[in-house]
Structures are given as C-alpha cells and as structure tokens.
Amino acid sequence: MKYLIVNADDFGYSFSINKGIIEAHTKSIVTSTSVMINAIAASEATELAKYPNLSVGLHFVIKNPNDAENELKAQINKFITIVGRKPDHVDTHKMKPIDNKQVEVALRKYSKENNTPIRCFGYDKFIGSWFGLNVDDSGKLNQDKVSLSSFRKAIDKATDEYNELMCHVGYSDDYLRKTSSYNDIRQEELKTILNPKARQYVEQAGLTLCNWRQVKVPNPILNPECKM
C-alpha cells in the first residue's frame, strides 16, 4: 500500500493563509500543516486541536544556522506553549536541512531523541515540485506549475510506501503581498486542491491519504534527492 501526506507549509504566516489551510483540510486533501511559530498568526495554531485528523508540525525558520540547536529548542518550546504538545514532524523554511551541517546535526539529534520525523531525512519520499516558482531560480511565478495538470504530474512521483506532497495553499491579502512574493498564487494552489478532480486523481493513483502521526519508519536515512 502507498500513502500520501499533503502538507500545507506556512501556517501562521498570515491569517489569510491559515484560513486557506483549514479550508483545504476540511474540504479537501490536506492532511498536515507546519507552523511558523514566530509569525503574526501563529497564535491560531491553538485552534488546530479541533481537527483530529490534521497532524501539526513545526516549520523551522532558521535565522542563524550556526545557532541552529538553540533556535530549534526555542521554537519547539514556543510550539508546545501554543499548540499544547510537541510537533508531529519538523520541516525547514526556504532551505534543505542538509544545506548546513549545524542545522542537520541539530535536527538529527532532535529527531532521534523525540522520535520525530523530519522532512528530507528519509521518513518518506518528499515531492516539492508542485510549487509556483520557475526552476531557473529567477523568482518569477508560474501559475501553470500549480495547475491541476502539474498536480497530477507531482502525484505520479508518489511511488514509495510513504510520500509527502508539499503545498502552500492559502488566501492572499495586503499583508501577505507586502511581506512575501509568494502571495496571490497561493489562491491558485488552493483552487487546485479544492477541485474534486484532485482527490479523484489521488485515489486513482492508488494512494491512501494519511498524516505524519501515521508514518512509522524505524530507520530513517538521509534522502539526498530532497528538493525544496
């Protein structure tokens, strides 16, 4: 059997993003989210306990990679204060955990001590291609990359026992447009996720939706193919 986690990154970045993520969970296929615990709308993560089938992780925002262990500890502690428990998983913001040795070491240590899955550490196959930025790193947005057709291509990559599709669904607003270049396109991702054909294609591909709490891999290894 093959399983698929659909993780919505960036919960807490803005209230409009939070609204979109909750809608994508309650009305469609998002099974997991990760919280930017120091962002302006992170306090709404206290309400996520209302959704027992939604796993909730930490979206680790790294300011100083050389102090990654202390930054991780501080964000974990704040996560526990807001959410009421430890994160179900951890993923990183705008970087791969293998890009910096201190970050990798800190995350491996936390994963081992807390039996917590970390994105790109081999707990599942990470699929990061369904994202509206051009592959040339020009920073230009491309709505075609978050279309239903592109969604299907991403789902076709879910060939392992456990797979994770990263998404950035949400609604846009003036705050998001001022603080992030990835703003209105989130609504295009949400539109695709909410399309009933998205769920239908997941089912046709033989995938069973699950969340991070259901992932059990006893001996994770580093996945060098991880792409953000």
Structure description:
α1 (15-27) packs parallel to α6 (185-194) and α4 runs parallel beside α7 (196-204). The chain has 7 helices and 7 strands; from the N terminus they run βαββαβαβαβαααβ. The protein is globular. The longest helix has 16 residues, at 68-83. Strands 1, 2, 3, 4, 5, 6 and 7 form a 7-stranded parallel beta sheet that branches. It has 228 residues and is α/β, with parallel strands linked by helices. It starts with a strand and ends in a 19-residue tail after the last strand.
Helix and strand arrangement:
Layout: E1 2-11, H1 15-27, E2 32-35, E3 55-60, H2 68-83, E4 90-92, H3 101-114, E5 125-127, H4 148-155, E6 162-167, H5 174-179, H6 185-194, H7 196-204, E7 207-209
Parallel strand pairs: 1-2, 1-6, 1-7, 2-3, 3-4, 5-6
Helix pairs in contact: 1-6, 4-7
